[in-house]
Amino acid sequence: MLPVQTDVLIVGAGPTGLALAAVLRKAGVDHVLIEAREDAQNTSRAAVVHAHTLEMLGGIDVVDELEARGITLSHFTVRDRDQALLDLSFDQLPSHFRHLLMVPQSTTEAVLEERLTALGGAVHRGVAALGAVAQTDGAAVRVKTAAGEQIVQARYVVGADGMHSAVREAAGIAFDGADDAESFILADVRMAWPYGAREVSMFFSPAGPVVVAPLPDGSYRVVATLENAPAEPGVADIQRLLDTRGPVASCRVTEVGWASRFRVHHRLAETYRRDAAHVHSPAGGQGMNTGLVDAIVLGEALTRVLREGEPETVLDDYARTRRPAAAQVLALASRLTRVATVRSVAVRRMRNLALRVLNRLPAFKRMLALGFSGIARRRFSVLPKTGPAINARQQRRPALVAEHRLAR
Ligand SMILES: Cc1cc2nc3c(=O)[nH]c(=O)nc-3n(C[C@H](O)[C@H](O)[C@H](O)COP(=O)(O)OP(=O)(O)OC[C@H]3O[C@@H](n4cnc5c(N)ncnc54)[C@H](O)[C@@H]3O)c2cc1C
After folding, report:
1. pLDDT tens string 283-333
2. How far is the CA of 163 from the centre of ligand 1 (A)?
3. Among residues 85, 336, 371, 332, which one has the least CA distance to residue 225?
4. Residue 158 Cα, ligand 1 centroid: separation in angstroms?
5. Residues lining ligand 1, judged by CB closer than 6 Å?
6. CA-to-CA distance for 366 and 87, rounded, in angstroms?
7. Of 53, 67, 242, 367, which has the fewest beta carbons less than 10 angstroms from its beta carbon?
């Protein structure tokens, strides 16, 4: 039975919504998590969880289970065909987690949902948010359920509803970014792979970068930018891609499991508060990671306001603290793509030479490892301290979430 009233309505049970619900449930904050889909998604999608994300997920006790179902890797190598240009190691990271974790997104979502259930929480599936209207003390959200439409009153509404966020739309928040979308191909394949299951490999190539990463079931995730990617990539497509951009040393693709293509606009929402806020290229493996860290920090902010009597400005602190993290990640992804796709042979030679020189500089490699792992962005996961609400009136300030009616 869907409640008609709650403190926090979370729209969308992807990794972000599930993680936020688990934080709130653990802290005893009243919330409702709705999800338009009837079933959990079972596709691979985002497959890497970085060290800083693992640090943050420790707060909801899911890391052991995730690590038990994934594989940990401590090397990331950038190559131009067979030539290694840069070899980053995560085993010196200043963290309890000196690795990255490869685990399909469907498994991450399953582990988060299991944790939420163990804490006594639930996902209300088959419930879609249709529109929201701001009120003096929160918002009235119109939802569609199997039994028909109803209103859920919430003090706060969190849009964890993905790229085409209805909540962002309802709140009238602009979603800025480049107009030119990048087209990606993703495939989980079985193959004979010269580098084995030891590292994540990124191949720089004039046609676009390719990332190959081992997955827990012995297959490999292949991600590449590819214009006009086939709707259903097959063995020959992936073999051609690796033959032209990957190692010269032979690799033989024998089977394609889950595969997909999609277009990505690099986008960042104009305001971060109460919002589904960023869309990334899958190549850097940062999209889901940023969303998960957002969720944990937002969970802390909402807990401080709703359970600990702190002023609502903590939510503005959340927005101020987290938006720069997403902006940095987007900048990192576009820099990487630019460097990876140099076309001129002369510039490519210079780039390769420069990278081989930089590969001898421990300080440079450490900086990159901190950036990839998210540890360089730790400061964007720490909310400033504030005191309790100055007065009750301030505490009752309307929790404006959605300013416009939705027409969907
Ligand atoms: C094919 C594909 C491959 C990808 N590969 C990678 C990758 O390799 N690396 C990477 O980092 N990222 C990848 N991503 C992106 C990654 O999946 C996202 O970053 C991640 O899912 C974001 O999580 P989220 O919880 O914020 O949103 P989502 O996972 O999009 O979840 C949003 C949820 O909200 C629900 N919803 C939407 N509208 C409503 C509504 N009105 N009411 C109720 N529920 C609603 C949706 O059904 C969905 O379950 C990929 C995405 C796709 C589609």
Report:
1. 556 789 999 999 999 999 999 999 999 999 999 999 899 988 888 888 887
2. 7
3. 336
4. 15
5. 11-17, 34-37, 45-47, 105, 128-129, 160-162, 166, 186, 223, 260, 262, 282, 285-288, 291
6. 11
7. 367
